[in-house]
Fold Dual-specificity RNA methyltransferase RlmN.
Amino acid sequence: MTESTQKINLLGFSPKKLEEFFVSIGEKPFRSTQVLKWIHQFGASSFDEMTNISKALRQKLSEVSEIREPEVLVQNISKDGTRKWVIQLDGGSAVEAVLIPENGRATLCISSQIGCSLDCSFCSTGKQGFNRNLSAAEVIGQVRVAIRSFGPFDPNGDRRVTNVVLMGMGEPLMNFDNVVDAIQLMMDDNAYGLSKRRVTLSTAGVVPQIDKLSEVTDVSLAISLHAPTDELRDQLVPINKRYPIAELVDACNRYMASLKDKRVITVEYTLIAGVNDHPSQAKQLVKLLKRLPCKLNLIPFNPFPNSDYRRPSEDAIQAFKMIMVKAGIVTTVRRTRGDDVDAACGQLVGQVMDRTRRSEKYIPLKDASGVQQEPPR
Ligand code: SAH
């Protein structure tokens, strides 16, 4: 490989780690703030661009380190403004990121792992097995790629990506350290400066990691619930067998209590015909959600190859929604966007080279394409 593989990639260094790096090479800590701004506010990819840094230091930095972004394989821009990137990663796999503009916002949905180990029954990412965690550089790299797609960076405050959600491929809390580093960059004023209300981490419910998260950040939280009872959730979201609903709800409440401001958790509920969309299940869900400060996001199931699940009828979706609304729960239905670039939930095509070989149990490997990813509202 090229020499770049030996160099330290500074792209994913959190502000604190970058400072430690500068100290470790005998430089003043404040230099790291300058470099942080160059990388994340000016979009610099080489040290030569960093004109307020001495030539000698630039030379020294380029000898030991680099700023390396993952490679964009494909970029698609939809008629409705949705943008989608297929991002090539070392090792031959690919993940996808999607940007959805809406009502003056632009929400970027990014991936945290190649594949996923949690194996939720309705999610095609899970069916493809797990390959590896993304590095912090690969996570934050998706944000840089999205911003740059609009042209040169605007250091005076970039508003081209206003919100970020970790709802793409993977379980962010199973890639804890790298995801936290990337989140800290998203929320740091010397980097992307997004408010904690505009960065959302979505989890299937890795309870101990939710507690750990509250110790290091105050990012907004979404949980993938999908069922009102343990009996059903055990089937849809297997990690429920380890951390059942009551424990998840308690962990969410502890997380919310740890925040200094008042916020709600986003509860995601993929509606699947005949599985979790019955009015009686809506009523059970009402009872459950009364125990949590939350808003509900209903996501009509998006089919993918080799899945027997179906999307409920529009009437069933509306009926479910009305039960929630009448019970006083703020509820939205996520609508498909970016149809002409295949950016809808469940239509994105990443590539996972499964290391667990679990996917063979479900689908022949030759059909193992069509990674589900989540364009949120
Ligand atoms: N592992 C994390 C992040 C992945 S995003 C988590 O579970 O939250 C997961 C979201 O994608 C789920 O909440 C679900 O709403 C959505 N999803 C997965 N498969 C889907 C499908 N086939 N159709 C519609 N939404 C799906």
Q: What stands out?
A: The chain has two domains: 3-66, 71-362.
